[in-house]
Write a structure and sequence with these properties.
By secondary structure, the chain is of the alpha/beta class. The chain is 28% helix and 26% strand. It starts with 5 loop residues before the first strand and ends in a 16-residue tail after the last helix. The structure holds pyridoxal-5'-phosphate.
């Protein structure tokens, strides 16, 4: 018997038998460790908001919420997901460059803690919607700072970007609070970029953002009640990439937070984290269907692929480097061979790993892409070749829970309409 990958004592082949493959498995214990490992060390004034974008599964969100995470959402469904997961609207912020009127209205009607406003035209729209309702909308301004982040995988600020209001433009505006009486300007949000793997870069960003928040709020003539310093904390995926050390990070970050909290004792300080909280917990489990060789290279053709795991998403690069991968049903066998691990899509890009070092692989084996709990199917073209969404399972306290059903053919077909050229159509029907 070869040793098998287990999740909290459950052999992966049991999970595959029960729920089928391809399958995403999230280990609740790892989710807890990730959150708690940071929470226990982080300055108590700094609140952790979970960015649902990284993994919008309602049960993942609920587990993180049960540990104390709040929520950062960017769409109507993410908002509803957070509320369904039990997050108090006063612990929800809504962010995104192109919010619809319906989304803004939902923020006001649900009473979210803050709308993070990304442009002056949006500010006017929020003002109008709030005054229609006889409310003042709680708003934080997202600032695109004049400084850039170093060593971020994908920069979101400090460059021409659709996100936020340029720092320079903001300082050129006067009397915003008076011009938009339906808006309650509460503070500032800045998000520099994602996949940051250096503690010092996080500390430097945070220092500069807190300083910027002070200056912006002074210019606006408001006391900062909320400052969201973004986050973008990464995890190592590729060979040679170090993980952030939460002990080192917080040891350097906490004094910076402390100095600001000292000056502004009433201010809510927010850090937004997606990938850092969920990536490590997830394994994408696929079954090998066929093995073959082509021009001297080995191929394991599996039932899963890049339609569930488009690794380049959120990484800011299409350079294919391999995610960590394991032969889940041959854990004690030495990796003596090189395998291309591919999926069922009719494109050469459907490659989960190139020349991954694995033991000899056979049809029926289960392979796993590790550290796949963030930006998985939700950030992948799940409808390509009409395969649809995989199943998702959360293992918590030793029990496996199906937390998303696999898309069935009828689920996918029901969204389509077979038109009949003989039937006259009335406009809008
Ligand atoms: C994507 C995003 C996040 C989450 O990023 P991670 O790198 O997954 O932590 C947080 N805030 C904003 C504004 C984002 O765009």
């Amino acid at each position: 018997m070869t040793r098998e990958f287990q999740v909290q004592g459950i052999p992966v082949s049991d999970l595959a038998d029960e729920f089928g493959t391809p399958l995403f498995v999230y280990d609740g214990e790892v989710l807890r460790d990730r959150f708690q490992g940071l929470r226990d060390r982080l300055h108590p004034a700094m609140e952790i908001f979970y960015s649902l974008k990284a993994n919008p599964n309602v049960s993942v969100c609920a587990l993180l919420h049960s540990l104390g995470a709040r929520a950062e959402v960017s769409s109507l469904v993410e908002l509803r997901t957070a509320l369904l997961a039990g997050v108090d609207p006063q612990d929800v912020i809504f962010l995104g460059p192109g919010k619809s009127r319906r989304e803004l209205a939902a923020c006001l009607d649900e009473g979210v803690y803050a709308i993070v406003c990304e442009s002056l035209p949006e500010l006017a729209e929020i003002d109008r919607l709030a005054r229609e309702r006889g409310l003042r909308a709680p708003v934080a301004l997202r600032v695109n700072p004049s400084f850039a982040v170093k060593r971020s995988g994908l920069a979101m600020g400090g460059k021409p970007r659709q996100f936020g209001i340029d720092e320079e433009q903001l300082f050129a505006e006067h009397g915003l609070a008076e011009r938009f009486p339906g808006v309650d300007l509460m503070g500032v949000q800045v998000y520099m970029g994602t996949r940051i793997l250096s503690e010092d870069v996080v500390v430097e960003n945070t220092t500069r953002i807190l300083d910027l928040a002070d200056r912006v709020c002074a210019h606006l003539g408001v006391e900062p009640r909320m400052v969201d310093v973004g986050g973008g904390l990464g995890v190592g995926y590729f060979a040679g990439e170090p993980d952030l050390d939460p002990a080192v990070l917080t040891e350097r970050l906490n004094p910076v937070v402390d100095a600001f909290a000292d000056r502004h004792p009433g201010t809510r300080l927010i850090m937004e984290l997606g990938r850092y909280l969920t990536a490590e917990s997830g394994t994408y489990v696929v079954a090998v269907r066929y093995v073959k060789t082509s021009m001297g290279e080995r191929f394991a053709v599996t039932d899963g692929g890049t339609h569930h795991h488009m690794a380049a998403v959120g990484i800011g690069s299409f350079v294919k480097r391999n995610f960590p991968m394991a032969a889940l049903t041959r854990m004690d066998e030495p990796a003596t061979e090189e395998w291309n691990v591919t999926g069922p899509l009719c494109t050469p890009n459907d490659t989960l790993a190139k020349k991954a070092e694995l033991p000899p692989v056979r049809p029926g084996d289960l392979l796993g892409v590790l550290r796949s709990g963030a930006y998985g199917p939700t950030a992948s073209p799940v409808l390509f070749l009409s395969h649809g969404y995989p199943a998702e399972v959360l293992v918590d306290e030793g029990r496996a829970h199906l937390v998303r059903e696999r898309d069935r053919p009828e689920d996918l077909l029901t969204r389509q309409r077979l038109y009949d050229p003989a039937v006259p159509v009335t406009a809008g029907a």
